[in-house]
């Protein structure tokens, strides 16, 4: 960073959004030493998961505008997609600034440990434990208030509220602590408290933590038990992180409102930790996490570091992809009438049929590979990103009701997970390691088969998944809409620079549908061709496995009125009996169509 640059550090959580505006100075590379604080302040809470996008934008808009760099680190900003979305929001406020985004865990680690090793225990409205040794990071807790955040303000408060309800249910009495809660919330009676709890959000409940500490300080043994339990869990997480990092005498830094505000919690935690980690060096953080956010922004350097520029060869390959070319028949798309638009769309669909016809041999091969794997006890996985991933998930989801197959027999894997099914998560496709990890999570075996779906033939998430599947001995198929992809390489299992040739795949299916009417929008012809191809492969495999009689489904799940009616008609057709007789037979067999047929 250049001397005199203005850096904004922002750390947001469930209690507040703290910010600091600093100016860089020459000197040591330690937070607080290389900065001169110009201004600082606090704004309302900004948990990335719990605060709406509209609310986040309003909060960001209140921050200083004249800056060169912004480091914005929010609770709940955990994934690459989260960071990308947060970066986009920040660029709306600071279009000319370099933006660095991340989780409050990151800024807390920077503020507490600088470049050093140790463990940071953060207890605010939520909680988390993060440790570092060299380049290795280990984490525990921090899963949010529904799944965890044990030892945070929400945890302590909800335990206290549950205790109140339990005492009422068991003894029809109100604890002395109940009066403190009613007073803090300006409520009049127990019923009002129950109604308040039923509609309160995480932050409303977490803000009752000071009442819990006050009661414990005044001698309430039950509240002290809750505090002891919170400290015990945080110590347990700290010990686990220390063990995984092999830190025998770790530096343990305490951060967050519960430790800053209530010395009782600090003493309780320190006392418990010393039992199992007697050599731990426990201290409260001397620097605020927003300074850590500013420091991380300077450490990150160029904004481009977060979006590495592809090499010229990669740029050339992408630009040459058929799916990225302009379609000469739609160059005046915005000037077309509705009639002309429909006609050109319909005319283009002929190319889908041509592409599928030209891929006949490959589709036959795919059916044979998939059938062989499934017969051998394997599973079929579709792996894709964006539109390709959604198409794969769609086809996979239709197999159980159509063919009576178990849900895990055919699975769709999409970059970005379930959120990407209904909200764009295109940035999730850029990591090969994420694709490999997604298959590791599903415990791929040698008898499984993985079909990677990528219109361009280059999506890193898909190629990483295929490479990992191949390394584990699974059958691998790539379905692409770019004829030139056969000349490219897919990364090998060791992620070597030279990679692995597409010839290492068991099968390559190319659907050359040509340029899209809307340039690059592969949800159009490429999406249609992909959907039909997957229909062919999965249906062909299910037929080969005996799931069909003639052109009738004999393993369908009769789980609705429509499907029960279909099952009756199928049985009546195959058994050459009337509708009522078929229905009676199905009812006698618990609507198991195959079982009814076998009895005939």
Q: Would you write up a description of this structure?
A:
By secondary structure, this protein is of the alpha/beta class. The chain has four domains: 6-111 and 288-304, 2-Layer Sandwich (Nucleotidyltransferase, domain 5); 127-134 and 137-284, Nucleotidyltransferase, domain 5 (2-Layer Sandwich), CATH 3.30.420.40; 324-544, Glucose-6-phosphate isomerase like protein, domain 1 (Rossmann fold, 3-Layer(aba) Sandwich), CATH 3.40.50; 550-598, Orthogonal Bundle (Helicase, Ruva Protein, domain 3). 46% of the residues lie in helices and 16% in strands. The chain has a five-stranded mixed β-sheet, sandwiched between helices. A five-stranded mixed β-sheet has the order 8-7-6-9-10, sandwiched between helices. Helix 15 crosses helix 19 (525-544). The longest helix is centred in the middle third of the chain and has 25 residues, at 221-245. Mean pLDDT is 86; it is low at 27-33, 302-309 and 487-500.
């Amino acid at each position: 960073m250049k001397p005199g640059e203005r850096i904004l550090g922002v750390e947001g959580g469930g209690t507040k959004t703290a910010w600091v505006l600093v100016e860089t100075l020459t000197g040591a590379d330690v937070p607080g030493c290389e900065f001169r604080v110009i201004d600082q302040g606090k704004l309302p809470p900004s948990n990335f998961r719990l605060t709406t996008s509209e609310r986040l934008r309003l909060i960001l808009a209140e921050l200083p505008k004249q800056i060169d760099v912004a480091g914005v680190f929010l609770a709940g900003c955990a994934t690459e997609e989260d960071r990308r979305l947060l970066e986009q929001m920040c660029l709306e406020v600071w279009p000319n600034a370099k933006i660095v985004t991340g989780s409050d865990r990151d800024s807390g680690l920077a503020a507490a440990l600088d470049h050093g090793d140790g463990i940071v225990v953060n207890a605010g409205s939520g909680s988390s434990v993060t440790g570092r040794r060299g380049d290795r990071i280990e984490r525990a807790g921090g899963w949010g208030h529904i799944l965890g955040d044990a030892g945070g303000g929400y945890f302590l408060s909800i335990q206290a509220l549950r205790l109140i309800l339990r005492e009422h249910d068991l003894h029809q009495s109100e604890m002395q602590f109940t009066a403190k809660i009613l007073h803090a919330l300006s409520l009049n009676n127990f019923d009002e408290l129950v109604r308040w709890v039923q509609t309160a959000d995480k932050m409303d409940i977490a803000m009752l933590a000071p009442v819990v500490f006050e009661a414990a300080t005044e001698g309430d043994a039950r509240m002290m038990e809750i505090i002891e339990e919170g400290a015990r869990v945080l110590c347990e997480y700290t010990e686990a992180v220390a063990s995984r990092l092999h830190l025998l005498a770790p530096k343990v830094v305490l951060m967050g409102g519960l430790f800053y505000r209530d010395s009782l919690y600090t003493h309780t935690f320190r006392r418990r930790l010393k039992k199992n980690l007697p050599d731990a060096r426990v201290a409260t953080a001397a620097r605020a996490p927003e300074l850590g956010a500013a420091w991380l922004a300077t450490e990150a350097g160029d904004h481009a570091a977060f979006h590495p520029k592809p090499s010229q060869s990669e740029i050339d390959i992408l630009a040459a992809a058929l799916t990225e070319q302009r379609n000469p028949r739609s160059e005046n798309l915005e000037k077309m009438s509705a009639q002309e638009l429909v006609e050109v769309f319909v005319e283009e669909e002929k190319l889908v049929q041509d592409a599928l016809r030209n891929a006949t041999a490959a589709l036959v091969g795919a059916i044979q590979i998939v059938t062989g794997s499934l017969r051998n006890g394997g599973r079929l996985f579709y792996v894709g990103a964006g539109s390709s991933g959604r198409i794969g998930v769609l086809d996979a989801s239709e197999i159980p009701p159509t063919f009576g197959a178990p849900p895990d027999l055919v699975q769709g894997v999409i970059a970005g997970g379930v959120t990407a099914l209904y909200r764009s998560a295109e940035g999730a496709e850029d990591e090969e390691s994420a694709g490999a990890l997604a298959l590791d999570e599903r415990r791929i075996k040698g008898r499984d088969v993985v079909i990677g779906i990528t219109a361009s033939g280059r999506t890193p998430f898909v190629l990483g998944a295929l490479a990992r599947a191949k390394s584990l001995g699974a059958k691998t198929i790539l379905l692409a809409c770019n004829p030139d992809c056969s000349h490219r390489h897919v990364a090998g299992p060791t992620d070597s620079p030279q990679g692995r040739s597409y010839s290492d795949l068991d099968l390559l299916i190319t659907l050359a549908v040509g340029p899209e009417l809307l340039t690059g929008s592969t949800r159009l012809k490429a999406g249609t061709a992909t959907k039909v191809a997957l229909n062919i492969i999965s249906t062909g495999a299910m037929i080969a496995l005996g799931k069909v009689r003639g052109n009738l489904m004999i393993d369908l799940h009769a789980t609705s009125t429509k499907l029960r009616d279909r099952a009756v008609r199928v049985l009546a057709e195959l058994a050459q009996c009337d509708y009522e007789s078929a229905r009676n037979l199905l009812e006698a067999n618990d609507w198991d169509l195959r079982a009814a047929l076998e009895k005939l």
